[in-house]
Specification:
By secondary structure, this protein is an alpha+beta fold. Helix content is about 55%, strand content about 10%. Strands 3, 4, 5, 6, 7, 8 and 9 form a 7-stranded mixed β-sheet that branches. The protein has a two-stranded parallel sheet with strand order 1-2. Helix 4 (about 115-130) runs antiparallel to helix 6 (about 150-185), helix 6 packs antiparallel against helix 7 (about 195-230) and helix 11 (about 365-385) packs across helix 13. It is elongated and about 95 Å long.
Length: about 450
């Protein structure tokens, strides 16, 4: 499965492009705030936010070719800045409480950076804390665009997106301290001079430009490292690949799973991981169930096992490439032991695998961790909640467990994301009923809009 661990040159470029556009919009907004009338500053921020939203809209429409976390973060920052600025000025206009002239966009000098930097700092911190629960990130994971199922690209995107957000926290934090220290200690509230505007406006612009240059060199060096490790795949190579179907089998006997304790996930590293030894690739677009069973029967030497589909996803990074997972249940021998299989490996108690998953997930292959997460989430969520998200058992301390017997006896559709969505939004969520009502109301509005179109 080495082709799944390669990253496209275009995908790497798109990662830098989304970052550059986001930083460029901040530069545009700060520059416009200097030359336009002060009252137009929140309007310029909203216009930039609308442009960023086009990227988010394309993502939601299915173009999940890059991480959208940073554009989403900038979008929230611009919206929050515009909202806070307008509300504060309305309160000052209604004489609720007075504001310094530097915060009022009806007069000069209006200094946007005094509000922009701390508001963005708070917004970015909140987004970073909630990064795994944000809607766009949830959609991305459900689509299979994560660090495991999307291969090397997903790993790079996952790491770099969080790095970009942490970078914004540091950037806005330092700018907030610099601007406010200057405002409180050195700024003379009579008339802003050239030095004042350099600190209040151009310091932000220069910081954003330097940040963009830094990431440009960073991603160029990343490209060189990936190319040196033969982890770059060109668009021509992708076009020549044709349809590719990868299949992973999880062979189960009782509560034991057959694994290779010395599996190799990365040929550039000597690290051994625990993984299923049953993997295959076919240059076709999809495979029939009889063919899938014939392959695993040959691999194991057991022809009378029970084949069951787990789930599958297309790889957003590599068109016409899909990864399927199957369970293959084998009956134990009359003495209760598991049969010896043709492929090298060993039977491992699933309780021990779950223990490793909880305490030392790095000892398991990343795809195995991803698949176990999906399996456990669906089974445990169905045990705790009903389809509407309400607990079946009133005891909030109820924590069920599961084993491979539950997997074999289950009638759940592991391909369906229904129970994963329930796990993310259920009665344990704060203000669940209010949020549930709002979601239903918003869904009806969208349905009515579609009917009128």
């Amino acid at each position: 499965m080495q082709s799944l661990r390669k990253i496209s040159t275009v995908q790497l470029y798109m990662m830098w492009k989304t970052l550059s556009i986001s930083l460029l919009l901040l530069i545009v907004m700060m520059t416009l705030s200097k030359f336009l009338p002060p009252i137009c500053t929140p309007l310029a921020a909203l216009a930039c936010a609308a442009f960023v939203y086009t990227q988010i809209y394309n993502f939601r429409k299915g173009e999940k070719t890059s991480c959208i976390l940073l554009p989403y973060t900038i979008f929230i920052c611009l919206i929050a800045y515009s909202f806070v600025t307008i509300v504060l000025n309305l309160l000052e206009l209604w004489h609720v409480f007075p504001l310094p002239a530097e915060f009022v966009f009806f007069t000069r000098p209006f200094i946007p950076s005094l509000l922009l930097n701390p508001i963005c700092f708070v917004c970015v911190c909140v987004i970073y804390i909630r990064r795994k629960k944000i809607g766009v990130c949830v959609e991305c994971r459900l689509a299979g665009a994560n660090n495991a199922s999307q291969g090397r690209l997903g790993s790079v995107l996952s790491y770099e997106s969080y790095l970009q957000v942490r970078n914004l926290i540091l950037l806005f934090g330092l700018l907030s301290v610099a601007v406010w220290m200057y405002f409180l200690l050195f700024y003379i509230k009579i008339n802003a001079n050239a030095r004042d505007w350099y600190v209040f406006t151009w310091l932000n612009v220069i910081a954003f430009l330097l940040d963009e240059v830094y990431f440009m060199f960073r991603y160029f060096n990343l490209y060189l490292d990936l190319k040196a490790n033969n982890e770059i795949i060109s668009e021509e190579e992708i076009a020549d690949m044709g349809a590719q179907t990868y299949v992973r089998y999880y062979v189960v006997c009782g509560n034991h799973i057959y694994v290779d304790p010395n599996g190799v996930e990365d040929f550039h590293s000597a690290k051994a991981v625990i993984d299923t030894p049953f993997q295959t690739r076919r240059s076709v677009n999809g495979m029939t169930a009889p063919e899938v069973k014939r392959i695993i029967s040959q691999m194991t030497g057991v022809a009378d096992g029970e084949l069951r589909f787990f789930f599958g996803r297309k790889n957003p990074a590599l068109p016409r490439t899909s990864l399927l997972r199957y369970f293959y249940f084998i009956e134990p021998l009359p003495d209760g032991s598991c049969p010896k299989l043709r492929t090298d490996g060993e039977w491992m108690d699933y309780d021990y695998v779950q223990q490793l998953y909880s305490t030392h997930p790095e000892k398991l292959a990343s795809l195995s961790v991803h698949d176990t997460t999906r399996l456990a989430t669906i089974i445990l969520t169905e045990k705790i909640f009903n389809e509407d998200g309400f607990r079946k058992n009133g005891l909030r301390s109820y924590c069920p467990t599961f084993n491979l017997y539950d997997v074999r006896n289950s009638t759940l559709d592991f391909q369906d994301d229904k129970w994963i969505r329930v796990s993310l939004f259920n009665s344990d969520t704060p203000f669940f009923k209010i949020k549930r009502w709002w979601r239903r109301f918003r869904g009806k509005l969208k349905q009515n809009q579609n009917q009128w179109q």
